[in-house]
Amino acid sequence: MTVNCNRASSKLFSGAFDADRIESLAVECREELGAEPSLVFAFVSPDWKPHVGELGEILQIHGHSPVVLGCSTDGIVGVGEERENTSGLTLLFLHLPHTQVRREILMSSDTERLVDLSLHPESADGSEEEAGSWIVLGDPVNLPAEDWLRQWNAAWPNTPCYGGLASGDPENDGFFLFNETGLMNDAAALLVHLSGGVRLEGVVSQGCRPIGKPYTITEVDDNVLVTIGQRQAYDILEQAYETLEDDEQESARGNIFAGLAVNEYVDEFKRGDFLVRNIIGGDPTAGVLALGAWPRVGQTLQFQLRDSEAADEDFREQCAEAQAKNGQPFASLLFSCAGRGLHMFASPNHDAGIIEDVFGKVPTSGFFCSGEIGPVGGTSFVHAYTAVALFLLDA
User: Is the pLDDT of residue 252 over 50?
Assistant: First the structure.
C-alpha cells in the first residue's frame, strides 16, 4: 500500500519587501517540507505589487515551487495570527505527492471559457476522474463573481469551490493577482484543482443566528420581497426585530439580513441552513423589501442577526464539528472577510486564533478578502462578512 506523505509549511512575514529575507523563508519552508513543493500560496500587502515578479522568481529558484498562486490583501493570516493593514507576506508550501494539481488562469476577456463542460478532467480510458475541489483567487474588478459562479456551478455540479477575492487599495490599483511569472494584469481569477491523494473539507461561517420564525415566500418581484407567509414582507421583518431583547435591538440596526433556505427538506431549520444576503432597501408604506439576491416563491426565509457573539460562536462550533468529523488536517487556508478582524471583534487574531485553538499549530495561511467563496448546501456562492476555512487532509 502506498504511504501518503502530504506535508505543509507556512510562514508569515511583516515588513516591506526584502529579497534576502524572502529567500531565507523560501528555503526554510522547503527544508521543513523535506521534499519539493507541489504548489505555493502567497498573499501580500498592496505595497509589494512592484516586487511580485521578483517574489515569484525567488519562490521558483529557492523554494523550488513550479506553481505559485497569489493575490493582494489588506490583512495577512498565519498560524494563530492576523495582521491587518500592515505590510507583509504569508506563504503556504504544499507537498502533495499523490495529487493531481491542475492550474487554470481565467482572463478577464475570457470569462466563459472555464465553464465549458468539456474541461472536466478525464482519465486515459475516458472515464471521469475523481471530482476533487477547486481553490480560486479572484480579482473583484475583473471577475463578475456571482454571475461567473452561477455558470460555474452548473458546469461543475457537486464540486466545491473555495477561496476569496483580492483586497487591498482600490483607489491606487491595489487589487492584483500574480503567479510564479509575476503580475497577472488581465487575470480575472487564478484557480487550482486538486484531486486524488488529498481531501479538502471546508467550513463556511456566515456569522449569523436566525431570529423570528421561518416563513414561506409567497410573492416576489425580481429581487423584491412582496409577501412572506401571505403577509407584507416588511411586517415580518418588524416582527423578527421585536423578538430581540431591548439591548439587542439597538445594535441590530443595519445588522439584520435575509436568510434564504438552501434546502427545503429539513425537519427544523437552524444556523447554517440559510444563504445570508443583504437587505438593500425597504418601503414600510408598500410593505416590501429589496434583497441583494433573487428569492423565489415557495422558498423558506428567516431573518438573521449578525454580531460578534454570533460570529464567534458559529465559527468556533463549525471548526470543532469539522475536527470531530474529519480528524486532523495537515494544512489549512483561511479566507476571512475584511469586515471581520478588528472591525467585528474586540481582540485581534480572532478567526486564525480559533483554528489554532481547535486544531493546534497546523501550517496555516490566508488573507482578508473583499468577498469569500465557499459552498452552502452543496452550491458555491460569494459571501460577505464570512470566514471560509479550508482544511487539507490525507485521503
Answer: yes
Q: State whether residue 82 is helix, strand or coil.
A: strand
Burial (CB < 10 A; 0-12, 13-18, 19+), residue 359, is buried
**Residues 6 or more apart in contact with residue 52 via CB below 8 angstroms:** 44, 70, 176, 178, 182, 183
DSSP assignment of 108-166, as one string? TT-TTGGG-GGGS-B-TTSPBPP--EEEEEE-TTT--HHHHHHHHHHHSTT--EEEEE-
**Predicted local confidence at residue 369, as pLDDT:** 97
Pairing of strands 387-394, 379-383: unpaired
C-alpha cell at 136: 480560486
For residue 1, being part of any structural domain is answered with no
pLDDT value at position 287?
A: 97
For residue 372, tell me if it sits in a domain. Answer: yes
Q: What is the mean pLDDT of residues 199-215?
A: 94
Residues 193 and 282 in one domain: no
16-to-13, 48, 362 alpha-carbon distances in Å: 9, 7, 26
Structural domains in the chain (count) = 2
pTM: 0.92
pLDDT band, residue 17 (cuts 50/70/90): very high
Containing structural domain, residue 13: 7-205+312-394
How far does Cα 91 stand from its chain's mean position?
17
What sign for the dihedral angle of Cα 225, 231, 234, 238?
negative
Residue ending a domain, among 289, 306, 323, is 306
Q: What was the pLDDT predicted at 156?
A: 85
| Radius of gyration of the chain measured on its C-alpha atoms | 21
Contact 216, 205 (CB under 8 A): no
> Would you state the pLDDT for residue 18?
97
